[in-house]
Amino acid sequence: MNIDLILHVLQDAFPAETLEPQAMPINETFVALPPASIYLAAQILVERFGLRHLSTITGQDTGSEIELLYHFWDGRGLTLRTSLPREEPHIATLVNLIPGAAFYEREVSEMLHVTFDGHPDPRTLLLPDDWDGGAPLINE
Amino acid sequence: MTRVTIPIGPQHPALKEPLSFLLTVEGEQIMESALRIGYVHRGLERIFQNRSYLQNVHVVERICGICSHIHTTAYCQAVEALLGLEIPPRALYLRTLLCELERIHSHLLWLGVLAEHIGFTTIFMYAWRDREIVLDIMEELSGGRVAHAVNVIGGVRIDLDQEHVHSILQRLDELERQVETFLGVVQHERTLQARTRGVGHLSAEQVRRYCVVGPVARASGVDVDLRRDAPYAAYASLDFQVITAEEGDVWARTMVRALESIESLHICRQLLQQLPEGPLTVRASRRVPPGEVVSRCEAPRGELVYYIRSDGSDRPARVKVRTPTLTTLITLPDQLRGVNTADVPTVLSGVDLCIACADR
Description:
CATH architecture of the domain at 3-12 and 31-117 in chain A: 2-Layer Sandwich
Radius of gyration of chain A: 15 Å
Number of strands of chain A: 7
Order of helices and strands of chain B: EEEHHHHHEEHHHHHHEEEHHHH
Radius of gyration of chain B: 21 Å
Number of helices of chain B: 15
Strand order of the largest sheet of chain B: 1-2-3
Mean pLDDT of chain A: 90
Distance between the termini of chain A: 40 Å
CATH superfamily of chain B: Cytochrome-c3 Hydrogenase, chain B
Number of helices of chain A: 3
Strand content of chain B: 5-15%
Number of strands of chain B: 8
Oligomer: heterodimer
Helix content of chain B: 40-55%
Distance between the termini of chain B: 40 Å
Shape of chain B: globular
Low-confidence stretches of chain A: none
Low-confidence stretches of chain B: none
Helix content of chain A: 25-40%
Largest sheet of chain B: 3 strands, antiparallel
Order of helices and strands of chain A: HEEHEEEEHE
Structural class of chain A: alpha/beta
CATH class of the domain at 3-12 and 31-117 in chain A: Alpha Beta
Number of domains of chain B: 1
Mean pLDDT of chain B: 91
Shape of chain A: globular
CATH class of chain B: Mainly Alpha
């Protein structure tokens, strides 16, 4: 993975944003983007750079917002970070780009009540069908 | 022909762990399948947030009853990166030794399960008997057959002397002869070939589409292995081959795992013969400075991912675990389409499911 080239292309694709890549331990780079840009950024990674391996999607409640981390990997890690409002969080699904994202999105959806717009199969993944205990990973 | 829908699971004699399928069949042929998991979901990601970093070492070890050590390896590696610790080489070698012993044990256990599912009970018996050699070694080293508690944040808590090294090397030779026998069976035995060739096929394109990892990906010709591609622990100083196959069926997965076991035996020998001298741990603070880390390891089933966020306290703000089984489960409806109902257990065992890992 040519991380410098990828970051350069992403910066060109979103001229309105100032991308501030963060170097993380163990060969990992984090890039923050607004939620509306995640689909396009993933499309660039997949179609232009052949970066098709999405390791997983982490969802977390940081207190003020719901943060999603899309962990890509090809020899080293690249994570796209985005933040959603705590009220009715939603974001475009990546399933048509990366079919392997289906389970990861379902898990984030049930654990944090994030809606993935356009997900072909938005059932719960791990929680019981009759679960009514709210979103388990939302901090109260 | 009439379509009939058959429920399988969550409790079923052919399943080792709970998951459920709705199979739609026409005659003996599977037309569609729907998968449901989550029956052993324990809410561990929430539990991690309520335990200290030290306590969590023992919680992550219990995610899986087969590859328990790789979970603590990925977890400790992540916390050590946040702490900025330099782990002593001897500790990294011992950590890697357990990783490879665990891989051999996992692959032999899997071979036994597959053999039993295709009615080849002899290989099931032999594979599980010989797996005891590895379990005995692990028990001697750590005191535990399943949960080893070898990793601590900052190193390992076990050591071994020269006499012990010699004794383990001898037993590894014995095990290698046995694994070579299994390899011969996989290569030449007609029954095994008839039951596994062409069954549960995944193309390299399907592997990439579904982000599949580990031996299942390698058996479809996708050459990926974190031990070589992003070396962790002691792998950068070891000499080993990454095994791949082109066929993409259950037979190819059997070959890949059998050859990988032999490769793991070679790695174990190198580790034991080159074991550096020195301390086993470095001192680690209980509080972890704020930061984030993504840690990846090659578990017996493939890429295992940990994400940890620290807020500066002695408890993690978030621990996310993605186990390799989750990536292979998603391919099962594709693999089952068109197969004979008698081959369903072969397909299921072919990918080496660990439902406890997937559900967490």
